[in-house]
Design goal:
Layout (H helix, E strand, L loop, with lengths): L10 H11 L18 E2 L1 H11 L3 H12 L3 H4 L1 E2 L19 E2 L8 H11 L41 H4 L17 H13 L6 E2 H14 L10 H8 L2 H4 L15 H11 L3 H11 L12 E3 L8 E5 L4 E5 L3 H6 L57
Parallel strand pairs: 2-4
Antiparallel strand pairs: 1-3, 5-6, 6-7
Helix pairs in contact: 2-3, 7-11, 8-12, 9-11
């Protein structure tokens, strides 16, 4: 029997907890799949776990990614031009959702509270990207206080959370209070982003921060290069014309910089949300784009929206200018169903080929099938 996953539990923690408690149970062979033994977990491993839960397709993938990984740090903040929660991650293996080579961290006070409430504790997904516990304001522990081993592949295995270190529970470690208010704000911000029920527009977020800076921040002076920070975050406005200025407004490698800026400008995330909702009173629900994914990671933006009622995938290309620019590639992809045949002896000549299975494979619903997803907004309605 599979265990119940906890609301903020990481995927690796859930899989390892099942295997630790039922190491010889044949009913849990699904957690012994070869791909789940990899050090790095990417979209392949997420799909495997999503299928175990019965969460199929793009919607199930994005649901699992949002609820049990640190990806919401990238997925919640989105440009208005982006029509997918995780972009091309459903098809590509670019984002690492779990890495055994990185040190894991935990809060000893969280462990004590979990054991008191549940009888056990687990690895929190947000603790992998912060240094402070957002609840208790203590520094997270990444090396065992009992033997100094790191909580990584080169030290303690994941199951140390339940087996303990030489008979000692991780919750017995002594907590160290945090004295950096910025680190606490960042931890609280990331924790709240993971539980937010709607998307945050990157364009509106920057506008709100700019307005806050113009008003002043409670008369305080900060040693922070605000102008340089905005230039780094807003690089795309210099490289693209006005029509495409916001498409790559916040690059993934500058996201943390934006959140750090937000944590400096606002003492509490709720204050930012209040100003944000004043500009965006009807934000997009967080699951609005879980049923769609991008099929062209570079160049043109082409999307597939999975329709679970009809069992089909609907193709769309909202920006035709980008679609045309993609064909400037010296080795473009040829779609025989859409392109005119070149004259003989000029350019690429089509040859008859047997068409393979259509992609994506969207399951058609049966009487006991997966419940359909009703999206408030369709990609094709723009």
């Amino acid at each position: 029997m599979q265990l119940r996953i906890q609301p903020d539990e990481s995927l690796r923690s859930y899989v390892e907890r099942n295997l630790f408690l039922h190491s010889k149970s044949p009913t849990l062979n699904v957690f012994r799949a070869p791909e789940l033994k990899y050090c790095f977990w990417k979209n392949r491993q997420v799909k495997t776990i999503a299928n175990i839960f019965g969460w199929h397709g793009s919607y199930g993938f994005n649901k699992l990614v949002h609820l049990h990984t640190d990806f919401p740090i990238r997925g919640v903040l989105r440009s208005n031009k982006r029509l997918s929660y995780s972009e091309s991650e459903f098809l590509l293996e670019s984002y690492i959702y779990d890495d055994l080579t990185r040190n894991r961290s935990y809060c000893p006070l969280c462990v004590k509270e979990d054991i008191h409430a549940l009888g056990y504790s687990y690895w929190k997904r947000v603790h992998s990207i912060v240094t402070v516990c957002a609840v208790h304001n203590v520094k997270l522990i990444s090396h065992c206080q009992f033997c100094a081993k790191p909580f990584s592949r080169d030290g303690h295995a994941v199951h140390v959370m339940w087996s303990g270190c030489a008979g000692r529970c991780l919750g017995d470690a002594g907590p160290t209070m945090n004295t950096d208010p910025l680190e606490l704000r960042l931890a609280q911000l990331f924790k709240k982003l993971c539980t937010l029920q709607y998307h945050i527009s990157a364009e509106t977020a920057l506008r709100v921060i700019e307005e806050k800076l113009k008003e002043g921040i409670d008369g305080k002076d900060f040693e922070w290069d605000f102008r340089g920070t905005f230039q780094k975050i807003n690089l795309s406005t210099e490289k693209f014309n006005e029509h495409r200025a916001f498409k790559f407004l916040v690059r993934p490698d500058h996201l943390h910089l934006l959140f750090e800026l937000l944590a400096i400008v606002y003492e509490e995330f709720e204050f930012f949300l209040g100003d944000y909702l004043h500009h965006e009173p009807n934000p997009e629900p967080i699951d609005s784009y879980w049923s769609s994914y991008r099929i062209a990671p570079y160049g043109s933006e082409q999307y597939i929206e999975e329709n679970y009622c009809l069992g089909v995938g609907v193709w769309s290309c909202p920006d035709l200018d980008d679609y045309r620019s993609a064909w400037q590639d010296p080795c473009p992809i040829i779609y025989p169903c859409c392109n005119l045949v070149y004259p003989r002896r000029r350019g690429y000549q089509f040859t008859p080929k047997r068409v393979g299975d259509a992609l994506p494979k969207v399951p058609r619903l049966g009487s006991t099938g997966w419940a359909p997803v009703i999206m408030r907004r369709s990609l094709l309605s723009d």
